Structures are given as C-alpha cells and as structure tokens.
Amino acid sequence: MEYKILKETDTTKEIEITVPRAELERLINEETDSVRKDLTIDGFRKGRVPRTLIRSKYADSLKAQAMDRLARQAYLSVVREKEWQIAGQSEIRNIEDTDPISITLYVEVIPEFNVDSYLNIEIFKEAPSPDDFLLQQGMNALREQHATIKAVDRPAVVDDLVTMDIEIKEKGNSRKESDQTVRIGDRSLPDELNRTLVGMKTSEKKEVKIEEKDYVISVKKIEEKIQPKIDDEFASKLKLADAEELKKKILESVKQQEEKRIEEDLKESISEILLERIKFKVPDTLTNKEYEKILKDYGIPDSESNKERFWTVAEKRIRFNLILNKITAKENLQVGEPEIMDLVTKIGIKLNDQNRSDVVEYLGSLLNREKTLDFLYKNAKISEKSRILTPKEVADDTHTVRH
Length: 403
Description:
This protein is of the alpha+beta class. Helices cover 49% and strands 22% of the residues.
C-alpha cells in the first residue's frame, strides 16, 4: 500500500491511497468464505456450496463489501502511521477499480498544537464581599425560599404576582394566552407591560401598545408574596435555638458559596488566559456540533444572527476542551474507572449494556475536566486584588481614623 497527500490544511487532509489489486482479491475470498459457512443452495449441503458458484451468484455484493473493507483498512493504516486525531467521519471521494486500486479520501483532523506555559498562570483573586452584605443576601434568599403566597383585594404593586388572560393583536392577527402569571417588575417583561400592571385591580381590563403589538390584558387574580421574619420563632421552625444561631448558620453557608464563586471566577480567568495563549484552527465539524448543541439547549433555531452570536462561543468551548485534554494527558491526570463508578452511584444512574459505554465516557470527560481545572488552579500564581469599598465602608473607615 502507498499513499500521498493531495491537499491539506491544519484540519483537513485529502489523500490518495493505492492498494495492489491482489489485496482486493484476498478480501473477496474472505467474504466468500464468510458467506459460504451459512449458505444453503438446492443440491448442496450447508457450508459446501462451491466458492466459484458463490462468487458468480453474488459477485457484485461480495466485491462491494470487500472494497468497503479495503478502503477502511487502508484509511486506518494511514491514520495510525500519521498519528492523526480524527475530528469526524472520513469521506470517500473516489474509488478507481484499476490495478492498483486507487482510493481518494477526505479526512478532518484535530491539528497539532503544543500546550506550554500553563503552570504558574498569574491571576488576581477578588476579595470576598463583606460579611454583613453576605448575611443579608443569605437571609433574603432564605426568606424567599420560605415565602407564602396570599391573594389580595387591592390594586397591584411592584413584586405582586398577577394572573391574567392576554390577547395579542398584530397586523390583523390575534392570539390568546390564558392564565399567565407574571411578577410585576420582572425585568424579562417589557417596561410598558410592567407599568400598565401597576395599579390594576382584579377583573380590570386594559389595552397597551408595545412596539407593533396591541396587548389586551384582563386581570384575574392578584397575589402578594409574604416573606417571614428572621426571628427566634422562625429559627425554632428550622430546629435551631434562636435567630442568632440561624444567622450564624446562614453566614457560614454564604461564605462557603462566596469562596466557591471566587474560585470559579479564577478558573474562568485561567481558561481565558489559556485560550489567548494557545490558538489553533478548530475543525468545523466539532464547532458545528457544539453550535447545534447550544441551539438545542437554548431552544432556538439556526439563523445568521444566531450563528453570529454563538459560533465563536462554540469554537472557544471546543478549543478549550482540546487544550484541557492535552494537559490532562501530559500531566497524567486521567481519572480511573473506580472514580467514575463512584459518581455513577452518587447520582444514581442505572447502567446497562446499551448505555454503559456512553455514560462512562461522558462522566469520565467531566471528571477529567474538573480534575485538570483543579490542577491548573492549584498551580496558578494567585494575587490578591483590592475590592472597591462601598460608601458605607468608606464612612466607617473615616470614622475609625478620627477616633
């Protein structure tokens, strides 16, 4: 077998492989013997049909199967020799049934690139938010979590929940949506709609024009969210001694969350630095696959505007994953099957013959990613970054100095 590269870029290769015709004949004979084992034809016992008869009767299919095997074996031989990492399925561009057999293949590959300068990356750590701010955020979240909903007989105000029927009119067309519940002040709603809802009463009807659409709103129910006070009574419901113990627990939890947030931000900084340092062309097949995944996750269609928004995001994700994979291999950070099985047990996935391979591969990639990011984080050079003081902190500092 011989081959030559006809055209190539960093991510694509077009190759011509020539194989002696005798190799094709050998594979045809193998295919014939494989068929012969189970073939039964009138006048011959199973496994005893003459090879010449089989080759005559099934000549076209035997040759097609042998040619497919020949192309696949030749392709794999070249890939192994060149040590290419394949990015997608290869494409047979042409086969010439000559002597020797000529096969032209198109292959998309992951380009060669080096990973250097990934240790001691300099990043700046943000100072955590003040304890009193974190405590207030934690208490707000807990109060929201334990809030109750109560119907009210008064005009709607900001933060109320309004259940309504909406008729939307546009260019002579109309559609209705029933029992839609929104929170007044929700920033995902148009400002005009929020302003219209404020002051409306149950059973009231209004019409508002937003851009090119007319909205006819019929309020059916107004509810307010009542949040509990963080006091001793509330603490006892959570099986804690008093409000002070509850606040202590809240502060411990939110401080852990804050440290985790800062760590995630630092890892994000590491990823941006690596993406800036290590650049290479990502195969279009991989980028397109990730782009389609993004569209599916967001539930949006393919379009020029969406491609403009998300294609670069998809390319960066793939490039960063390839960079991490190479660092993982270089530092021998691959997780073993016991770690993967521990995660399978923890999240309660039931493995079977159909899903085992895919699940193990997917979870292994997640664990490898996490382990490598932790390695980069632990080996980074982290400098403290001063936090901008709030006006209250400035006043407190000034007050302290004066004393």
